Amino acid sequence: MSRPPWLDDADERVARAAWSRLAEPGDHDAGRFVRRFGAVAALRQVYDRGPVGVEVSERVSQGEAVAARWRVRAGDLDPRRDLLHLDRFGGRVVVPGDPEWPTGLDDLQHRAPFCLWVRGPRSVAPVMESSVSVVGARAATWYGERVAGDIGVGCAAAGITVVSGAAYGIDAAAHRATLQADGVTVAVLACGVDRGYPRGNDRLIEAVADSGCLVSEVPPGSAPSRWRFLERNRLIAAMTRGTVVVEAAWRSGAQGTAHQALELGRAVGAVPGPVTSALSAGCHRLLRDGATCVTDAAEVVELVSPVGFLDLGPPGTMRVAAVGEHDGLAPLELRVLDAVPLRSAAGAAAIARTAGLPLEQVQAGLGRLEARGLAEVVGRGWRRVR
Amino acid sequence: MSRPPWLDDADERVARAAWSRLAEPGDHDAGRFVRRFGAVAALRQVYDRGPVGVEVSERVSQGEAVAARWRVRAGDLDPRRDLLHLDRFGGRVVVPGDPEWPTGLDDLQHRAPFCLWVRGPRSVAPVMESSVSVVGARAATWYGERVAGDIGVGCAAAGITVVSGAAYGIDAAAHRATLQADGVTVAVLACGVDRGYPRGNDRLIEAVADSGCLVSEVPPGSAPSRWRFLERNRLIAAMTRGTVVVEAAWRSGAQGTAHQALELGRAVGAVPGPVTSALSAGCHRLLRDGATCVTDAAEVVELVSPVGFLDLGPPGTMRVAAVGEHDGLAPLELRVLDAVPLRSAAGAAAIARTAGLPLEQVQAGLGRLEARGLAEVVGRGWRRVR
After folding, report:
1. Containing domain of residue A376, as a range?
2. Which residues in chain A (145-184) have CB-CB distances under 8 A to chain B?
3. ipTM of the complex
């Protein structure tokens, strides 16, 4: 197979764009091949009959065998066409080394994408610095969509980018809420960034492209496939600082994303739900597998924030529900309080006897209870304030 | 203060029964004092004016100071009266060293109870060998009571003793379901075992006494107090192999029990619920603090069973919800399946091109898909089976 003319002056960017059409996402062989020889040289081997170079070592022969795999697809390959098409709607190709390349992807090693096809005003790498993936079931419940929305709003307020897959259900709820709260949201697609999938989310996907960005590792015009959906999930896991699963069935794509994030050492959170809901079973499974329980936006922000960076405000400001009368009492004070009568007053000695405590401790405890408005002096004794 | 006549021939059991009336549950000083001198000698020091022994070392002086604390309560002390009263309704006192003494309590060290006042046909230690505490909110929801009930039934079937505190809500639901499933259940009370608390659970508490047992560290006739409720929780945590919290507010007694269990190295589980429910907030907090997420009785049984002991049955028999067409397919097969057309058939070479895979792998993959009924030969090509 003869080399196409465009390959003669192709640079690494063009060659990587070509590879993204030649090999399927996450293909180990192609990834290793490109990492070993570089995208341009590896591409030339696909077209050349024999291996590149003079020395026919075993290593090069292996490369030749691998190269042969993509010849069948290389016939009408022309990345310039894809780049031109992308250019028409303001897209760009991002490759390793570019300032916009999210370095988290490098953790995928030979499973890293060859390039990212990107559309939208936001630069990918900077918005991923502080980011979280919010993923979950397509057939989400009202509960799940509400929680995903709350997380989107909270992340927007905290300046954290919300990344998801533009699917129905949890994905859409997270994107939508973040947009409405003027936050930054990024959709990672399993198809080309020139087409929205699913169709029903077309307008949402365009809105994401208008203010955040769309990202894909497959070139414009590519259709989604089950394989591409699965592999897309690894990008979501690798690009962000952490992944939160809001609702997921016992087996689900969102769980796959979370497990990839765990393997990559990213923070992983799962939102609990009723044990009677099949759509929370996957989240509970993740909690058993080591995910962190997250119940609100504040906990999601905490999950993906560097340790010590975060100020959650004074403890209890957000979460304390009912505070009982004895909350905050030291054990000693509680024991004294138990011994103070409700109706007729009792002397400190009697209270000490009832409490089984030394008199001087009881006297000090009564003073503190009085200061808290829990006990009062009546005549010569003490009584509880109701 | 002169020694009462009964103390002259009191043995360790009688002396410990006396201590259980003299000192409040969990009193560190009393616990250390009794551990150091033995219950009988420590009791004699309470009555004697000076310290026991000839040598007035600093250590003994400390003992004397401590002993003075209980003199005020020792006036009308007579443990024989308590023992006689207990005997009338078939109760007994269990002390360390007895075969019925649950050795888990020894982990509490100087916070261990002096004795247990017990009523019911079951011997405490044997039924605690395989046991779980099921605790939670008094003001439980229908959801929480249902889950507690399911756990009770499942534990009964697995031969695991269900321990709780006989309170309204989760406690009562767990006891009741276990009883109805002919399981063993034990109620640990904050009051004497001769009286039920709360009154509304009188019949339930009597039913527990009839088939399982009632346990308390305070003597018959004792009223519950907030302090005693809190300290009762440490017994529940220490006696059982693990503690499961079903529903609990952000601050709650059940959470206290769980934290004590964690400190004692016991297994701790928490049942998740909607993040919108204040009564699940405590459970979610526990999950963040290291508790295991448990969603059904099987997971509770697993939690408190020795590792490797348990047979949960073939994986997936209980929990797999919807199994999609591509579940169980190897990545390669999935990629081949993605490339097999739905309508008009395609040859293996064309499929290999679409899939970006070597021809021989695609041929093998097609064979496996055919065997699974996912692809079929039509003419000279392959088509997906819908």
Report:
1. 331-384
2. 146-147
3. 0.78
